[in-house]
Structure formats: C-alpha cells, structure tokens
Amino acid sequence: AEAAMACLAVDPAILLVVVGVLAFLITFCGCVGSLRENICLLQTFSVCLTVVFLLQVAAGVLGFVFSDKARGKVSEIINGAIVHYRDDLDLQNLIDFGQKEFSCCGGVSYKDWSQNMYFNCTATNPSRERCSVPFSCCLHDAGQAVINTMCGHGMQARGYLEASAFIHTNGCIDKLVNWTHSNLFLLGGITLGLALPQV
C-alpha cells in the first residue's frame, strides 16, 4: 500500500486529472452562477479563485524563502520517481523527456539509478539491466536515425570520466536549478501573466 501511494504521488496523469476536476468545478460555479444570476454560486466561484490565487502566492513566497527545503523536496520527488521508473509508463515517459531535455541523468548523478530495483548495481540483482541507466541518459548523435535503447548498459559500473563519453553524468536536480536561475525573468513573466487575469 505504501509503494502504491508513493507511485500515485508522482504519477503525472493523476495530478492532471485532479487539477482538471478542480478547474471544472470552479468554472462550473462561475458559469452557472453568472447564467442563472445565482449569488451563492458566484460567491463560491469568487472565494475559490481567491483561495487558489493566495495558494499560488504563498507557494511562490515559500519556494523563494525556503529554497533549500524546496530543493530537498524536488530531490525527494525525483528519487521517488527513479524508484518507480518501471512501474508506470507515464512516469517513465516523463522522466525520459526530462533527461533528454535537460541533458542529465538521475537526481544528483547517474549512479542514482541504483535506487531502482532493475538498475541496481549489486551482484545479487538478476536483472538484465543491472548497473545500467535508461537510454534517455545517453549522448545521441544528430545523424543517428535509430535510437539504441541499450546504450546505457553497464554504465554505473564505469567511472565518471569513462561513462561521460557515452552518457550524461550530471544529475537533473542541478540542471533544473540552473535552468530555473537562468530563466528567472521568463518564469516571473509567465507567473505574472497567469496572476493578472486571476486578479
């Protein structure tokens, strides 16, 4: 049950369904309230929008003030996703997309993939993927037409310099933090653009 709950916590499909249901309920109150001129529904709509806006502001302020704890939480989420990589296809596709997009591998380094039972590097692991990393960690040639899904085979057993010739060895947490810092104005503009219509 604990493993199932941990898997549900990082499942992007469930997160999207929950956000979609909440958005539908809030907009339904606003739409029906304005059509029927129902004060109760309009007040519910107004209160919900105010609560959502205040939660967004609070999350932004807390994320800025407690950036170290936010980084720890991101690290915890990424490590949980690594553990459940093979359990959920949606999660697997999301991790592969992130690793390709940010040219990274694992949380802190490519060795983090040992947390996954399939990629675990212990001698007792019977998996064919023992000591490997997912193909999304691999360096890809631009002219390569077919992706070699076994390119990460045995990479955890290699040293950092040796592995860096075949895969991205830097972790995704640092890459994500660096991307956030370098695109701070863009993220601020998007946040402001989303906040203005709510206000």
Automatic annotation (TrEMBL):
Disulfide cross-links: 104-137, 105-121
Gene Ontology cellular component terms for the protein in this record: adherens junction; cytoplasm; plasma membrane; pore complex
Please tell me where this protein is predominantly located: other
What keywords are assigned to this protein?
A: Cell junction, Cell membrane, Cytoplasm, Disulfide bond, Glycoprotein, Membrane, Transmembrane, Transmembrane helix
Which Gene3D superfamilies does the UniProt entry name for this protein? Answer: Tetraspanin
Its transmembrane ranges are 12-35, 41-66
List, in alphabetical order, the GO biological process terms annotated in this UniProt record. pore complex assembly; protein localization to plasma membrane; protein maturation
Extract the CDD domains matched here: penumbra_like_LEL
Please give, as recorded in its UniProt entry, the membrane topology of this protein.
Answer: Multi-pass membrane protein
Instruction: Show the GO MF annotations.
Output: enzyme binding
Q: Where in the cell is it found?
A: Cell junction, Adherens junction; Cell membrane; Cytoplasm; Membrane
Q: Which protein family is it in?
A: Belongs to the tetraspanin (TM4SF) family.
Q: What is this protein called?
A: Tetraspanin
Please name the source species: Ptilorrhoa leucosticta
